[in-house]
What does this fold into?
Amino acid sequence: MTELRFTQSHEWISVEDGIATVGITRYAADQLGDVVFVELPAVGKIFAAGAEAGVVESVKAASEIYAPLAGEVTEVNESLGADPAAVNSDPEGKAWFFRVRLANPSSVAALMTKDQYTEFLKGL
Amino acid sequence: MRYLPLRPDDRKAMLARIGVASIDDLFRDVPEAARDAHFDLPRHASEMKVERTLSYLASHNAAAGSFPFFCGAGAYRHHVPATVDHLIQRSEFLTSYTPYQPEIAQGTLQALFEFQTQVALITGMEVANASMYDGSTATAEAVLMAHRITGRSRAVLSGNLHPHYAETVRTMGELAGEIVVAPASAGVPEGLERVIDDSTSCVVVQNPDVFGSLSDLSRLAEAAHAKGALLIAVVTEAVSLGLVESPGAMGADIVAGEGQSIGNALTFGGPYVGLFAAREKFLRQMPGRLAGQTVDADGRRGFVLTLSAREQHIRREKATSNICTNSGLCALAFSIHLALLGEKGLGQLARLNHATAVRLAERLSAVKDVELVTQAFFNEFTLKLPKPALDVADALADRGIIAGVRASRLYPHDSRLRNHLIVAATETNTDADIDAYASALAEVIA
Amino acid sequence: MMNVQGRPTTIEESEPVRQATISGDRGLDHEEKLIFEIGDVEVTGVDLPELDLSHDRLGGLARKQPIGLAGLSEPETVRHYVRLSQRNASIDASFYPLGSCTMKHNPRLNEKMARLPGFADIHPLQPQKTVQGAFAVIAELARWLKELTGMPAVAMTPKAGAHGELCGVLAIRAALRARGENRRCILVPESAHGTNPATAAACGFAVEAIKATSDGHVDLAALKDALGPHVAGLMLTNPNTCGLFERDIIAIAEAVHAAGAYFYCDGANFNAIVGRVKPGALGIDAMHINLHKTFSTPHGGGGPGAGPVVFSQRLAPYVPLPLFVEDEKGFRLIEDPQAAREAGAAPLGRMCAFHGQMGMFVRALAYMLSHGADGLRQAAEDAVLSANYVLASLKDVMTAPYEGPCMHEALFDDDFLKDTGVTTLDIAKRLIDEGFHPMTIYFPLVVHGAMLIEPTESESKETLDRFIAVMRELASEAKQRDSAAFKSAPVLAPRRRLDETLAARKPVLRWKPSAP
It folds into this structure.
């Protein structure tokens, strides 16, 4: 079963069978403006929850991407190297950043649901 | 006061619009105790008076052009065509700012794009930035860049690197890791390769070096690469690139250099212009500003500052460097002079420098007991004298010859170098200069 | 999101507006290609002899490959660069109210003095007895800097403001080491210029941001909370980047010192108080001075600058090499770390090769001698007066986040543009068409869509009035919600808006010859 969750730093995380796919939300992509470069973590890297996992650069801004939950990086989205613009056109689909094998799959429940994230955005 | 356009009536009207009685009201947030400081400084002066004061001080300096002059060691006296200084004084180059509004800064941006191209071409590298403060800080930034790229923090500095550059690297780089400085040597020392290990991020070597010596860096490049380290080549005499094999061709990963020799006067050590070039794959780790090509809304080619997300105003504490300014006007002077020279002129200039230096070296080393220490060189070489270089240089100065830079000034505690004199010759040195030096040296040594 | 400036970068579709000419040039506005497209490798504009190096001592290291570097004749070079220059805005030609940059008049006397052969044609390593006049200039400039700031020591060698900040923070680090303390953190207000946290991080410190109060000042209570034995120092700009004088500064300095930390002051805004206030009396430990801001050395399209740093007594021992010494024999340098220690100093190292930006020292000294203490004071007062005049004249039609009065720069935000579809960027681009260089935009970050206006003391009231009239009209037009005229601006500059996204996604950073 796939679970979709969100963080306060505007990452989305889609979990299936203990593997989490992570990207940034439409809101974040719009705030950044045209994305020009994405710095992704190395495959095999192990993160604690909340650790800095990469950077998204736009023309006039740079923003850290955080690992929402602890785990090991199993895959990164190489296509973003040639096509960073995908982060603006399809941030919640095609432009996923990396995949993590979660250290503790049940920790997903602590993150915001889609409805909770939508509420959270209203408050900003 | 001639620089202040506001008139008393203007000030009155402005205060009225603001709604305060006096200018003091606008300083009311300043703590009372600090508000109206007294300064032990003179009152304003006319242009004529300022000129008189500063001309007097200038007259107490011996301009290099008034003697046979042979100092180098990181700053070189070259002839700069009148056009260069005239063009950089145009209002729109002199009094413009960093090109943050590109639509009205295409002059600066295109000139920087051309500069970046010229620097990449002469160093044999793939990409160059829009300049750094000078060669020494460029070298320090290159070391920090190598640390970022390799993820390591140990830098090895060759003993042939200018000691001021080594000290600058140490000051700026010691925060980021270990700096190993090899003892002073002309040329690349034998044992340097053995100092490179798996924790080394970079080897920094100067060519031509502080003693003037020329080396082939290829072997050192291979040794560094074999251990996963980068080779940083430092060039302090940019004219050498017109005749000597480029650092890029010899395997350098990053080139840090001093551009003063082209387009810029000696000016007692500053302002100068740092050259910085690297392999394209390291682009995102490069410090400094970058001018890039793009198009405008009408589809016409134009230029903008780009990849700014690396810089301090965006990345703040995660920036590649804290740098804000580059050395814009000095880079422009470099670029104009190089445009005037072109490949053909740069080659001619370089050959003339080398031929002059060779002639001088042969005349001086023909003097009894004077030994030429540097075998391969461009326009600078080192002599070993039979007496301390300080005494010889002083005696030559008394005879009106500024004979070079004594190694002991750069290495005050290295007793091996007490009798060594570093001598530079450029296209500005005449046959008469060479004759005068040779005969005076013979007298002084005898 | 960190560092989002809210600055749009895509170019929206709009009609081309220029009338075509046959040549593509328009009157005095010329299109100009690159040197490499005009020149040739066989051409040179310098007459040099053609030498055949039959006998060389290059050790076999002569170049094997050509460089590919085009050259031009002298007339072509002059035309190329004159045409490029005509595509630049400049202080000499336009009002240039860039907040934080202090775009004041650059006197040509300074240029003349810097070019005297006695200053321009001297080598940093020629015998010291032959350059006593140069040392006298440096000593005199140092005296003025110390007297104007009320500080006992100065480091002359940093090559730019950011370089000066690095020097100051390195001095703090050296002082802490000498005390045997390992404090890891530096406090920086949220409103700080990016060089401050970048410098702190470069020196190995963690950076903690201090919030501002609702009236734009450093929150003293928040600062006191943040201070502790782990804090090495505070980096503060005063007047701050919102253009306000930190009225609690003496209390701030006391709190910082009581906590055993050091107080670094970013001197970028010194123009507001020079000749009236001595920062030393406010309790600072170090302050860099941007000679290219307060003291008129020319901006040159992005440099060179100079950033000497004044030090308090407790940081004075750490001034970097070389040290400038004067005794009965005259002036001399101490360049050797050991000799410096024997003289009782503890230099933090060397900021750069040689002795600093002599060319900028001469220019700054000419400026100081011209103004004198009375002229500098008047300059600061006129700078503050002009900024307040602009603030008072625009705050009814634009939104100023802080009531005022301000110091030498006036800050506005984009609240007055809400729901108009017009952005701060659009206002800036319209100003270009109106013949002004825009103000600083999107800085400081603590305010949304910031517009920071620093007129300086070099502008006539007539210029200020013209600027105010244009800004009032633009504000009024924006509120009418017809943003089309804004989105297409500028239309009268040599280029329309440029695609910065393309430049960053597909970087082209040099010319390359096209394949045959």
Chain C touches chain A through 14 residues (CB under 8 Å). The radius of gyration of chain C is 26 Å.
